[in-house]
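Per your request, structure below.
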């Protein structure tokens, strides 16, 4: 008989990656959430400095290709009418709270995990869009933004793996096994692939012009 999300043991599940199990997953969410929240916070501070002084040079303006200031002044940096980092300040604070609750032994209902899945999925879609805009429209990189990208990718993958293992996302046996065994590989591929596209698009930022 298949157990429900509410009654399933919160610690060990053989069909979930180790990092997506119990308190390990809580710690993972706290660490990725804190790093993302700090990067978002730095972006907010830099954006406020630019509001005060349009000629302000941000702390991550290194060259024509890696320039937070260039990215922040683009229309894409305020997709909803306010600076995008404000979304990160709120969203990653929620992620940290969930992680801390899991570390304390909290268990959430299936509907709650569906909400978490929707949230991290939207975050993943958003960073893919921001990646495409940075590389092919704005033609500049934001260091703090890239830190957030590097955190959201594994956050999305391991949350998805966790929810597959716990039945939040219905999946067949082969899909569950694939998720348990290959999530870390997918994370590495996406992170390395993202880094490769950045290097190939902006070789001058790394090799010099």
């Amino acid at each position: 008989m298949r157990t429900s999300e509410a009654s399933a043991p919160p610690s060990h599940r053989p069909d979930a990656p180790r990092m997506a199990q119990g308190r390990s997953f809580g710690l993972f969410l706290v660490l990725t959430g804190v790093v993302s929240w700090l990067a978002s916070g730095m972006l907010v501070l830099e954006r406020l400095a630019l509001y005060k002084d349009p000629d302000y040079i941000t702390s991550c303006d290194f060259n024509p290709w890696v320039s937070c200031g260039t990215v922040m002044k683009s229309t894409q940096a305020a997709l909803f009418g306010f600076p995008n980092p404000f979304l990160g300040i709120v969203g990653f604070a929620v992620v940290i709270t969930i992680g801390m609750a899991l570390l304390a032994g909290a268990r959430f209902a299936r509907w709650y995990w569906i909400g978490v899945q929707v949230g991290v999925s939207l975050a993943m879609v958003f960073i893919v869009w921001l990646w495409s805009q940075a590389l092919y429209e704005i033609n500049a990189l934001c260091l703090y933004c890239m830190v957030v990208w590097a955190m959201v990718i594994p956050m999305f993958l391991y949350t998805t793996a966790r929810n597959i293992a716990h039945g939040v996302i219905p999946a067949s046996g082969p899909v569950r096994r694939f998720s348990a065994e290959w999530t870390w590989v997918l994370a590495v591929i996406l992170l390395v692939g993202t880094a490769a596209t950045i290097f190939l698009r902006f070789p001058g930022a790394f090799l010099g012009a």
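The chain has a mean pLDDT of 90.

Regards,
D.
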